[in-house]
Write a structure and sequence with these properties.
This protein is an alpha/beta fold. It has helices spanning about 20-40, 65-75, 95-105, 120-130, 145-160, 180-190, 220-225, 250-255, 260, 285-290, 295-315; strands at about 55-60, 80-85, 110-115, 135-140, 170, 195-200, 215, 230, 270. The strands form two sheets. Strands 7-6-5-8-9 form a five-stranded parallel beta sheet. A four-stranded parallel beta sheet has the order 2-1-3-4, with helices on both faces. Helix 1 packs across helix 11 (about 295-315) and helix 2 packs across helix 11 (about 295-315). The longest helix has 20 residues, at about 295-315. The mean pLDDT is about 95. Bound molecules: N-carbamoyl-L-aspartate (NCD). N-carbamoyl-L-aspartate binds near residues 65, 66, 139, 179 and 274.
Amino acid sequence: MTAQLDDQGRLRHLLSLDGLPRPILEDLLARAQALADGAARGGTDLRHVLAGKAVCTLFFEPSTRTRCSFALAAQRLGADLLSFDASTASTTKGEADLDTLKTLEAMGVHAFVVRHGRDGAVAELAAAAGPGTALLNAGDGRNQHPTQGLLDMLTLRQAKGGDFASLKVVIVGDVKHSRVARSDVQALRALGCGEIRVCGPAALLPDDDTLDGCITGHDLDAMLDGVDAAIMLRLQRERMADGLVASLDAYHRDYGLTARRLRRAEADAIVMHPGPMNRGVEITDEVADGPQSRVLQQVANGVAVRMAVLEALLA
Ligand code: NCD
C-alpha cells in the first residue's frame, strides 16, 4: 500500500481511512467543523490559503456531488482549479492514466482529486507521482471513499456529539459494492463506535475481512432496533452481476427504509445516504425528505471536509 503519511507522520496523500491515525482523523474533523462554523457565520475570505496552488479534479467515473464539492472547496481556498473529465479527453485516444497525470503534473498541478473505477488505482498514481504532488482519493472502485467517510463522521458528530462509544450505527444495503461503506466502517472503528451493525441481503455483504468486528444480519427490522443512525447505501447496479437482486420491488420490501420501519430506531435517530439516492428503492421520499434525514447536511459538510483535507495537504 502506498504510504499516505510522510516521514514525520504528516498527511501527504489522502488515499484511505484504513490505518489513518486517529489524531489525524480527529484534526481533520475539528478543522472541518471550524470551517463549517465559519461558513455559517457568513464566511471569512480564505482565498489566500491555497493562492498559487493548482488543483485538478481527474474523474474517470461520473460524479455530481463529490466533484462539485471538491471544486468549490479548492476555489474557496483560492486554488486554481482544473476540471478534467476523462470521458471527453485523450484517455479516449488510449492515453494511459499515468501519462495523463504526468502531463498535468508537468503543467504545475500540485494536487489531483481522482475518482477511478478500479480498486487501488489512486494509490498506484500516488506511488508514481512526483514528490511535491498530493493525491486525494475521490472514490476508487469498491475500495475507498475517504472524504465521504470523513463527512459522514462529521455529520454524525454534529447530530450525536463526539462520544462515539455510546453510538449504535447501522449501515444498510449494497455493502459489497460500496466504497462508502468500507470507509465508513473504518472511520467508525477508528473513532471507537460502540456498535457497528451492517445489514443487507447475503449476496450484497462482502465475504472478506471488511466487516470484522461488525454485527452483521439480514433482517432490517431487527437491525434497526434502537440505533442512533442509519446509513443507507445506493444499490450499485452498475457494479453488480445480474441476478444478485431478484427485483427492485423485493429489495425495497426487505431493505427499503420506510417511515414505519424507521420507528424501530431511537426517536432521535438520524438517516444518512451518500447520494445519489434511488428513491423508492433503498429509501422512500418520506424518509429522504423527512425530519430525521441528514442527507443535505452531509452534502454541506462535504465542502468543509474537502477544504480541511486540501488545506492539510497543500497549505
Ligand atoms: C458514492 C460513490 O460514488 O461512491 N457517491 C458519492 O460520492 N456521494 C456513493 C454511490 O455512488 O452510491
